[in-house]
């Protein structure tokens, strides 16, 4: 088993083979999960974190494809969870707009 003597930087994670996972992939999963938890507390966090998770998931998947670093699964998971978050946010905004238009005007 290889021994890693260098210090881990913020955002580094160790994969099963001892290789570091891509930082963007890890950040994508973390932000997507934080967005889901934030949805239960504050919908704004969900709306802000989900698109960021999608972008980081795409960047992480590209980087892992080019460099061969582990983390492609994490990048894909962050992209998919963030994408679901974006779709849910769109439905919420459209639903609120329709609901607001259906309300009678108060004079």
UniProtKB/TrEMBL annotation:
UniProt keyword list: Membrane, Transmembrane, Transmembrane helix
Top-level taxon: Bacteria
Membrane spanning residue stretches: 26-59, 79-102
Protein name, as recorded: DUF4190 domain-containing protein
């Amino acid at each position: 088993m290889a021994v890693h003597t260098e210090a881990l930087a913020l955002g580094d994670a160790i994969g099963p083979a001892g290789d570091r996972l891509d930082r963007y992939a890890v950040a994508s999963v973390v932000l997507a999960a934080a967005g889901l938890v934030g949805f239960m507390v504050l919908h704004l966090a969900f709306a802000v974190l989900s698109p960021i998770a999608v972008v980081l998931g795409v960047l992480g998947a590209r980087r892992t494809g080019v460099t061969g670093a582990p983390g492609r699964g994490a990048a894909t998971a962050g992209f998919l969870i963030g994408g679901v978050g974006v779709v849910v946010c769109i439905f919420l905004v459209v639903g609120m707009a329709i609901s607001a238009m259906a309300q009678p005007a108060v004079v």
